[in-house]
Amino acid sequence: MADLKAVVAVENIRYDRKAEALYILDQSLLPGEEKEIRLRTVEEMVEAIRALRVRGAPAIGICAAYCMYVLAKSIRTEDRQVFLRELSRYGQILSDARPTAVNLSWAIREMMRTALEHLNDPRGPMLDALYERAVAIHKDDMDKCAAISEYGLSLVKDGDGILTHCNAGPLATSQYGTALGPILLGTERGMTFHVFSDETRPLLQGARLTSYELQRAGVDVTLICDNMASIVMKNGWVQACFVGCDRVAANGDTANKIGTSGVAILAKHYGIPFYVLGPTSTIDMDCPDGAHIPIEERDPNEIKTMWYEKPMALAEVKCYNPAFDVTDHDLITAIITERGICRPPYTKSLKALFRD
Ligand code: MRU
Q1: Of the chain's two ends, which shows fewer C-beta atoms within 10 Å, N or C?
Q2: In CATH, which superfamily holds the domain spanning 4-145?
Q3: Span from the CA of 254 to the centroid of ligand 1 (angstroms)
């Protein structure tokens, strides 16, 4: 049953102030099961981030902000320097859980800055300030997604075919999402899009999450394997590609889910615009280019055994399982942020976003 409102309002991360408890929707169980789990300790938090129970660059940033608040509350000392050291140690542990998405370290830095600013306040008000900062990061992402969706929607027209890779919808962010934002917003306004969702190897975020979100929202979505992108483009069924991003370097090179760069190369071949959508918190101006983006490598069993009843390959066979790849800036038609649409040359247009 199509229910766009329920999809947009999905609570992938929820802090219950009454119960003083942080919950996430366990995305590793989707689409079969919708189950929340509670995160109490740093070990549970790291496990949830690594196992992609909570995932998507903006969502792990939001989750990390609440995690920092929960961890701050657990530190029992009157000595503020000890408190700060302990919180910073937790921040480092969380930050190391996944290296590519810059939103994770960005949110942790924001929380550390808030802790420093309120270091001399009594414990209660200091913790309140941390809570309010986490809520602000969450709320801010909702506003950013709404703005990105508006800008993205201006790039397509009713009836267009859109190809997307990975999952950059409400589950990976908040509310509308980034790459799926224009599609959901347009649908809400009565427009029709024909979306091709790559299944997205190795964790099948496209199959398990994107097609699930779009189908539930009443969008016309067709699931394809990653190696079918060329045929649907060649058939003339795709007028634009919308993808998310996990880190954008200062020159516009963009890390996103593994396989994204191949989609961009195909799009260039077929003359289809290739758009990257993400909040400014995903832009890392300290990172000069894609060669400086750390790429997470994951367990080979995600390829060899995870999705099969029996192992799919010999146990001893070598596997290379990078979670992300980098799309060169010259393959990207535009980068869409909440502050506007950046066009090449990105060294200039991205810099302009951060000018006061
Ligand atoms: O490994 P994931 O699932 O956390 O990867 C994140 C993604 O889904 C994408 O790469 C996405 O396009 C950017 S996050 C909105």
Answers
A1: C
A2: translation initiation factor eif-2b, domain 1 (1.20.120.420)
A3: 12
pLDDT digits (tens, 9 = 90+) for 331-345: 999 999 999 999 999
β-sheet bridge partners, residue 254: 248, 327
Residue ranges matching CATH 1.20.120.420 in the chain: 4-145
Taking CA atoms only, the protein residue closest to ligand 1 atom 12 is: 244
Assess whether pLDDT exceeds 60 at residue 1: no
Question: Active site includes 226?
Answer: no
Atom 14 (ligand 1) nearest CA: 56
Enumerate the CATH 3.40.50.10470 domain ranges in the chain, comma separated: 156-353
Q: Is the pTM of this model over 0.85?
A: yes
- Set 246, 253, 284, 325: catalytic member: 246
What topology does CATH give the domain 156-353? Rossmann fold (3.40.50)
Residue to mutate (ligand 1; options 165, 183, 198, 205; most atoms within 8 A of CB): 205
- Distance of CA 174 from the midpoint of ligand 1 (Å): 13
pLDDT tens for residues 268-325? 999 999 999 999 999 999 999 999 999 999 999 999 999 999 999 999 999 999 999 9
Q: Which of 33, 15, 37 is nearest to 25 (CA)?
A: 37
Number of the ligand 1 atom closest to the C-alpha atom of 246:
13
In degrees rounded to 5, what are phi and psi of residue 16?
A: -95, 105
Pocket of ligand 1 (CB under 6 A): 52, 55-58, 166-168, 172-173, 178, 205, 243-246, 256-257, 323
How far apart are the C-alpha atoms of 305 and 159, rounded to whole Å?
39
Mean per-residue pLDDT, 209-219: 96
DSSP-derived letter for residue 201 is T
Of all residues in the chain, the percent with pLDDT exceeding 70 is 99
Backbone angles phi, psi at 276, to 5 degrees: -105, 130
